[in-house]
Structures are given as structure tokens and as C-alpha cells.
Amino acid sequence: MAVFVSGSDESAGKNRRDQFIFAGFVATERDWSEIVAPAWDGLVLNGNPRIPYLHMTDIRSKKWREENGISSEEAGRRVDRAVDAIAAAEFMYPIGLTVSGAHMCDSFANVRVKLPKSKRSSAAFERIFFAFSDMQCSP
Asked: Which terminus of the chain faces fewer neighbouring Cβ atoms within 10 Å, N or C?
């Protein structure tokens, strides 16, 4: 059985009826753990100063950069390194999907999901699979 790992993120418009976009890269668990993760740690996270993670919303935030002791210039270098690392990993496959928020709201208007008690599993479950269920769908 093949096991895959992805590094991905999602974005939505101003309201839940707008487009929802999910994109990232996927690789085998072995490639991810033996190549991607160590390269990411060494090229992107490690440095002066070391940062705990790279998320575009945070690294663009002056407050986050100040809390982590990283300059705007160094933050830009980290993003450049991240792009270079991803571009060099030819074994990773890009993934992406776009979902109509309006269609999802209309299709799942009467669906309610009881999420698991575990915060970790419920967050992933809620954010990706049922991104538009159990919500207000008005503009």
C-alpha cells in the first residue's frame, strides 16, 4: 500500500459562497520524511534565527516576524529558499482543486457533521473535507 503526504493550504473568498481553493504538493511518505522534511528544515527553517514554521500569512506579518526575531529581508530569503526547495523536488506532484462555495452551501445546506473530540483530527477534518458544511451560507 502506498502512503502519501501532502503540504498544502487553502484559501477562500470574502464569503462562504465564493470559490474555495485547495493546493499543494504530494509525495510518498518515504520521500517526504527522508528528503522533503530534512531539506525544508535545513534550507527554510534553520538559519539565523531559526523559525518554527513557514506560513505565508505569518511570515508577512510584522508582528510574527518581531516575535520570532526575523527581519523582513531574511523572511524574503526564507520564502525564496522554500520556492527553490519545492522546485528542486521533481518527485513531488502538484495538487489543486477549486470548489464553488455556492454549490457546496446549496448541496450541504441540511448536512450537519459531528466532529471528533480530538482537536488535531477535527481541525483537519473540518477544514479540508467539510470546508463549507455546517455554516451560514449567506453573502
From this structure: N
